[in-house]
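Hey, can you fold this one?
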Amino acid sequence: MQRKHFINAAALSLLLHLAAPAALAQTTLRVFSGGANQRPDLMRKLFDRYEAANPGVKIQIETGGATSELQRQYLSTLLNAKDSTIDVILIDIINPAQYYGAGWLEPLDAYLGPAATALQGRLPVYLTSAVVNGKLAALPAFADAMLMYYRRDLLDKYKIAEPKTWDELATAARRVQKAEGNPNLQGLSIQGAPSEGAVCTFLLPYWSQGREFNDASGKLTLDRVAATRGLQQWLTMVDQGVIKRNVAEVKTPDTVNEFKTGQVIFAINWAWAWDRFQDDADSKVKGRVGVMPMPAMTSGKSATCIGGWLWAVSAFSKNKAASAKLVQFMGSRDSSRFLAVEGVLLPVYPDIYGDAEVLKHAPWFKDAAEVVAFGRSRPMSARYGEVSDTLRTVTSAVLARTLKPEDGVAQIERRLKRVMR
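Sure. Predicted structure:
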């Protein structure tokens, strides 16, 4: 009897010993979740949900970098050093080609399936921006887009329809400016300072002429005539008094602040600016803002810059499978809907734009849906930093009138032929 009791006790002790490591086993994933505009507070709520459903996983969050450029600098330093302390990173839509080309990202195909399958149901733009050399480099988290905001109250007041072309916008703006009699009222605010916003300032009128900046392989396909015409369109609007003369100094936050004061009729800016216009205590345009598709060049078609953020797994992570599983959850339809409802972040799934619950929180999404349908990604290049630097500096110089449009375009072609080949 004593022997049997001893054996049972020993067996129980052995079982407890074997079970203890399994019960205590835990995977800790460290995630870089961007800056304030990427809403790490909401990401934390999603991480908490994931932890609750996966008790063996704990997620630590790291944030930083007020702008995409600052975040890119930080991550480039971290990943270039092959740092394994970060498992999952949130990256700008312009980064996958650069990061994957540098060997910094773990391809997700082995964990999530082929790119076409893993990205099914999402906005078409991600079939190019999230895929590099046929491999799934990242999974979309939420979208962003350059939107055309406008003073709905002013267009209604003067019975002006949403302009479809840049020339129509200029005519509408001048009509309102004259009728209002306010010398400080701008017709259109765009970004002309040598920052990322100026890249889209170059691309918007160019794309709307039906032109491609690069082919599927990333090779430059610049149409110099169309590019010159696009830059000249902005200068003409400056001369008309629609765009202010010091536009070459205007940055993305400047446009937001100018529009908030009620001193701008039309403004191009990212989707996150909506909250600034509607929720900021100092906004004078609450309830007066409309969103419409980006105007096109005459006889052209609307096109806009798609932005947004994607989840990727570091190639140096020691927990790649667990990280990929987390990325799959964070890029899911449920997560996208949660971010749309709780944070008014643009979904990466087109059908969510018509979701009744989402529209209760963000009724303007019904207008944004048409905008993102025309969205295009900035040039996907492993050397995007050089592409961006060229486009932003030349565009700013043209708007400052230190370069003629045709000379600026020639410079873009000369510099980028070596980079995008």
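Residues 2-143+307-374 form a domain with the D-Maltodextrin-Binding Protein; domain 2 fold (CATH 3.40.190.10). Let me know if you want another pass with a different chain boundary.
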